Amino acid sequence: MIRRVWPLLCLAIAAPLCAETTAVEPAPITAAELRTHVAVLAGDDYGGRAPDSEGGRKTVHYIATQWNEAGLQPGADAADGGLSWYQPVSMVTRRPLSGSARFFTLDGKPVPIADRSVLLSGRADSGRLDGARLVFTGYGIAEGAPPPDLTGRIALMLAGHARGETRTLAERAATLARAGAEGVLLIFDEDDRVSSLRGTWFRKASELAEDDARAPRFYGGIGDEAARKLFAASGDTLVEARLRADQNPELIEPLALTADLTARSQNERLSSYNVIGKLPGRDPKAGAVMLLGHWDHLGVCRPEGAPHRICNGAVDNASGIAVLIEVAERLAKAPPLDRDVYFVATTGEEIGLLGAKAFAEHPPVPLDRIVAAFNLDTVAVAPAGEPVAIIGRGKTPIAADVGKVARAIGRQVDADDDANAYIKRQDGWMLLQKGVPTVMANGAFSDSTRLQAFLGGAYHTPDDRLTDDTDLSGAAEDADLHVALARYFADESSYPGPG
Fold first, then answer.
1. How far is CA 305 from CA 301, 308, 309, 310, 463, in A?
2. Domain map (residue ranges) of the chain
3. According to CATH, what is the number of the domain 92-267?
4. What's the pTM?
5. Is the pLDDT of residue 11 over 80?
């Protein structure tokens, strides 16, 4: 069925606007066009598109080439002050191997704390800290408070949250590290919290290199019973210390204790890139619209000798990048819109939404200028004809307009918010955290049965490959939806802005 998208949108939403643009109606995006890109990106030659791999470098070059040929301009800031297609993203992947802590009174008497009561990891491949004084810091350094001098200290910080606290534990620990703390040990409310975390503590984890550099050298936690022993050995009680912390958000108290810490980790540094393209609008002051999707996948994911070792990531997320490429081409061929449109292909999504976080921390366009952002991820799950699920509905004011645009081009829209269960598992979450109106709108997440079949089957395995049975008709329909969304939100007459 031929989808005549823009005329329907004109009739339903913005007839005055469309009077000047109907003559250049973009052709519908086809499944065959998307398949061409997916075949390249999910091919074995690209090796599963892991960051900092040969396949990853091929991927960012392919995306930049396609956007350049479509007529986009580079949208990232270059080191020389110019513009580039590539935004550098430095990451650290770490697997803690071992960690131990020994505690002593000031006269050198050991405080007996069982190894099972302590979790500890370190940033270095092999790190050691001897005789460091312990300091009780309550819930951490209060926001806006002058930082104390914690040089060389180990901070004991309550793992709970003070009233009105919005920072994460990692952010609070980083604040202590900036004050000079060499280590941060969280005090958990319950002893079984340590044992429950132990299974995941020594798994591989990744973060931006800049965040890693701000973290303390040693990071860990102790259970309630161990904390009680430490405070007792220092002539105090944990109960009274908690009360003081509740009453004084700037509490910093030295303890009559020292500790020896050792930790070993396996570290890998990754250098990768977001790809950023820009379609300039007519009015530089009107703001911007953003479309994004992650290009990375898992790379070689099976051991030597396996029948197929590569996780190609056809659905996740070569399909989303294919949509971004074709949407960019359609919009670039049409007359300019009022607002700039940015296209962003992110790295590091599979290891923690890190490329999106890097963009949000260092945006080439001020985030408050982005009036709407749309994430494209795993769009090739459902066939054409599925309703549109809106991930982010209830979290951002643009969701109602997204539904209006979808209905205007003949799409049904899910009435429930079930798809919001995935809101923190996609790149748009990093933008939402910064106040950018962001949704993920597609048909792939509207049928939970079909989606769960994919997530419980081919997802993150070598079976997520492009085959003759891969149905890209739903992805093509979602591509047309994003052409319509970009044109609607990038036009000041149809969408003046929030409020």
1. 12, 8, 8, 12, 16
2. 5-71+280-489, 92-267
3. 3.50.30
4. 0.90
5. no
